């Protein structure tokens, strides 16, 4: 009877150990999945400047190609845009 109880105790300890190890692995997997989902849903903002020398026009465009809205955008251009007019 004592030997059977010892086997039950050892088996219970092994089960608890394997359960804790599986829980840690599951939590690590869950953290990875959450990080990937946050990156997938984040806004991706593109800023583009294009010029047309023959029309003497410069266009600037801001596009959000991400899956969620981008808030509180601040766009700065370094160096500042300078207009060179050939008609002096």
Outline the biggest β-sheet: 2 strands, antiparallel
Sequence stretches where pLDDT stays below 50 over 5 or more residues: none
Q: How is the quaternary structure best described?
A: single chain
Q: What is the alpha-carbon Rg in Å?
A: 31 Å
Largest beta sheet: strand ordering: 1-2
Give me the secondary-structure category: alpha+beta
Gap from first CA to last CA: 108 Å
Share of helix, binned? 40-55%
Sketch the topology as an H/E string, one letter per element. Answer: HEE
Query: How many β strands by DSSP?
Result: 2
In round numbers, the mean pLDDT is 87
Share in β-strands: 15-25%
| Tally of helical runs | 1
Described by the principal axes of the CA atoms, the overall outline is rod-shaped
Task: Describe this entry's structure for a reader.
With 88 residues, the chain is an alpha+beta fold. Helices cover 45% and strands 18% of the residues. The chain has one helix at residues 2-41; strands spanning 45-52, 57-64. A hairpin with a 4-residue loop joins β1 and β2. The longest helix has 40 residues, at 2-41.
């Amino acid at each position: 009877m004592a030997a059977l109880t010892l086997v039950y105790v050892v088996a219970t300890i092994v089960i608890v150990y394997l359960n804790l190890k599986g829980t840690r692995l599951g939590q690590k997997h869950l953290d990875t999945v959450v990080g990937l989902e946050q990156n997938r849903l984040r806004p991706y903002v593109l800023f583009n400047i294009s010029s047309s020398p023959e029309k003497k026009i410069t266009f600037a465009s801001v596009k959000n190609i991400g899956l969620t809205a981008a808030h509180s955008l601040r766009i700065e251009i370094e160096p500042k845009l300078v207009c060179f007019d050939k008609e002096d």
